[in-house]
Amino acid sequence: MRSMSPELRRHPSPLGRCPEPSEPSEPAEPAEPPQRHSRGQAEAPPEPLGRRVFRLPPDDREVLWLYLLTRAGLWVTAYCARWLFPADPDTHRSSSVLAPFQHWDWHHYLHIARDGYFPDGSGPWLSNWDNREAFFPGFPLLLRAVHVVVPDWTAAGLLISFVAGGVAVVALARIARLHLPGADTGRRTVLFFLLSPCAVFLALGYTEALFLALALPAWLATQRHDWPLAAALTALATSVRISGLFLAAAVAVHFLLGSHRHWRALPWLALPALPAALYAWYLHAHTGDWLAWKHAQERGWYRDVHAPWGTWSHSWTGAFGQTQSTGYAFMFQAELLALLVGLLLFALLLKQRRWPEATYVGLTLWALGTSYWYMSIPRATLLWWPLWIALATWSLRRTRVKTVYLCLVTPLSTVFALTFLTGRWAG
After folding, report:
1. Residue 214 near residue 167 (C-beta atoms within 8 A)
2. Which helix (H) or strand (E) holds 88?
3. Per-residue pLDDT reduced to its tens digit, 59-68
4. What is the model's pLDDT at position 34?
5. Is residue 343 predicted with pLDDT exceeding 70?
6. Mean pLDDT in the chain?
7. C-alpha separations of 231 from 49, 215, 257, 272, 405 in Å
8. Distance of alpha carbon 314 from alpha carbon 339, whole angstroms
9. Residue 14 binned pLDDT confidence (cut-offs 50, 70, 90)
10. Region at 380 (left for phi over 0; alpha for psi -120 to 50; beta for the rest)
11. From residue 45, how far is each of 38, 39, 40, 385, 389 by CA, in Å?
12. How far apart are CA 314 and CA 332, in angstroms?
């Protein structure tokens, strides 16, 4: 008689192993008897739906634990800053616990959420206008909605960023694991991201955390070829920041170059342009200017179009020409360094033929690198998820990269955090 090979015994057919007709079948292992319940004994209740929906894999829970630890570190920094660096050095009372978070662009979002874009007929025709139409309406609308439940405006803004940041880091870790499978890949990517120099902006009432909470899941949906979901999330991201249009371009490139194209999904790719078009229509209805957003950027932040070499020259003068106070000069130096990092990242993505990510980063560099001078490029690095994945991948290949990064970047992160939390310009 011919016996069955060990390979077949170890790897049975998916349909089950059938014995040969000429030999008796091997006795199967006894099956567990069905659970019987005596009369009056209730069956075990099913697991609650909420627990099934919100259960996260261990890797995601580890990432969220890291997120909470870094948030606690920033809150400790904010607490110390209001005691050690008060606006009045001779004061005997510290500012409120939320005061360190109430600086710069936060006031624009607060005024929009509380008063609207054009309260009492005011607008850009006034000499003291604050150019608030330069900010897209997504975050202020959500802030107004959360304020219904959270009475304090600052607390409402911090809550939005806190929840959105948690969503963002989980999505970032999942994208990293798609790029390079492994439990440590996602955790290390998130660590580099959360300790980056401008990570303080993720904890503020700013748009970075909310944008990433929409953009990164949109990119995950793109990787899974779920085009309607990717387009809907990208449209929501566009309502928060103009960067959503750059993300939409990357999604379109991924669609056109991919092998899983479904041409019936092509109209979905136009959806992200809808929020920008509606906002332009709204501004035109109130100002008569279809380019009111762009003109507000020019008036308030000198974001008119210049040749790239002219932008570099103006920024270099601001950094080293002794035309600015030392605080602003330092931030111009940070702008120059962030631009160089972006160019290196763009070149790396081109070399690796990652065309969609290169499109996203390239458009961001073009938008920020052609104004009068560089502004907010360090903050924009938070939105470059390929940067943090590339650093994590590099550190897994060269063990010293992680140590060097943490030793050099952590002090910069503390400096940027203290700069913002004490009311100084932080880009």
Report:
1. no
2. none
3. 999 999 999 9
4. 47
5. yes
6. 89
7. 28, 10, 17, 6, 35
8. 14
9. very low
10. alpha
11. 16, 16, 14, 42, 42
12. 10
Give the three-state DSSP class for 303: coil
Contacts of 123 (CB under 8 A, 6+ apart): 129, 286, 287
Encoded amino acid at 290, one letter: W
**Per-residue pLDDT tens digits for 271-325:** 999 999 999 999 999 999 999 999 999 999 999 999 999 999 999 999 999 999 9
Maximum CA extent, the chain: 100
364: nearest Cα among 196, 211, 227, 245: 245
Encoding tokens for residue 374? 């560089």
- What is the Cα–Cα distance from 204 to 157, expressed in whole angstroms? 7
- Specify the pLDDT at position 18: 40
First to last CA, the chain: 81
Neighbours of 89 (CB within 10 A): 6
Residue with tokens 């790719």: 269
Encoded amino acid at 347, one letter? A
Residue whose entry in the numeric block shows the structure tokens 């030392």: 326
